[in-house]
Amino acid sequence: QVQLVESGGGLVQPGGSLRVSCAASGFFFGGYSMSWVRQAPAKGLEWVSFINSGGSATYTADSVKGRFTSSRDNDKNTLYLQMNNLKPEDTAPYYCVRENYDGIDYWGKGTLVTVSS
Prior knowledge:
Blueprint lengths: L2 E5 L2 E3 L5 E8 L8 E6 L5 E7 L6 E3 L7 E6 L4 E6 L8 E9 L2 E5 L3 E5 L2
Parallel strand pairs: 2-11
Antiparallel strand pairs: 1-3, 3-8, 4-5, 4-9, 5-6, 7-8, 9-10, 9-11
């Protein structure tokens, strides 16, 4: 069955960096686009970053543009989100999601990123 398992979250100071990962299994990872989404406390779900199946195209939300970057290693079935210059408003659980033609069809359980001094 399809599994998406995030890791790498934690506590980081403002201005710091963190890389979260998503290990995928149960499907042909290299055949799907993937995204990261987050849900900050008391806020709605926010799409953060998209990467196409081959990794040649990425898109990021305006709120994180220039600070966050998605990448992937299709040989390792792993998706990454590099987060730099983190701000307190970036605090949220981060979810790895699989994209399909109809939208998101699978979610991971999330990894919590907390930005605080």
